[in-house]
Amino acid sequence: MSQSNKSGQYVCRDCEKAQRIERMPTLPKQWKQLGDVDWLVVANNYALSIDSLLRQFILVQDHDPAYGVVFQLSQNGMLDVHINTLSGMTEIPEKMRKTANWGQELSDEEWIAKVGIWYTPAWKYGDLSSIFENEVARTIASFHYDLFEMLFDSDEDGDGSDGIGARIDEARLSAIELVRNSAAFRSIEKTQDFTVYVADDDGLDYESKKHIGN
């Protein structure tokens, strides 16, 4: 607590971590099938995970406004969050040159025209859980993966036809709304045209199945 962050606030990281770890979940043994699950608990756990990642992002944002956030409903019941900033937008061409095995001859402008500004793998803060060391997010990810495995193991048909996928999606969408109304989300420095998308596992808009940004 001897040094303030960029906003001038003092943060006791050890205290905050201890409080969060104390609340971190393990899959209840009495949850053996779909009807046993407390979906409010599941949604709150998703929200706690994302909130912990956003708090880390805020500490390093350094007055670099974010122009967009993508919440992605990924495989195996995961909920990922991607953020890009104005400086991250300018870094998209260079990141693509480092990762793509094609297009090395393209100019910065041509790269942006090719991939756009909503291609999250080229973002500066694409998938916060892979960028930040975060015990809270890792533990909750394990919780949700274990939940996903338990539910599909208990599914007699093994195809999710009993509504498992829909219930997981409902919990994730509820968590996104919790996050969007949270203090951490409000604290993100944003551009005037800041945009939020919810994407499916393929990176398409969850509702329309169209490419985000269109």
Count of helical stretches: 9
Q: Any low-confidence stretches, pLDDT <50, length ≥5?
A: none
What's the Cα radius of gyration? 19 Å
How is the largest sheet built, in terms of strand order?
2-1-3
Helix content estimate: 40-55%
- Order of helix and strand elements from N to C terminus: HHEEHHHHHHHE
* Ends apart, CA distance between termini: 44 Å
The tally of strands reads 3
How many domains, as an integer?
Answer: 1
For the report, how would you describe the main beta sheet?
3 strands, mixed
The percentage of residues in β strands lies in 5-15%
Molecular shape = globular
User: Average pLDDT value?
Assistant: 89
Query: What structural class results from the helix and strand content?
Result: mainly alpha
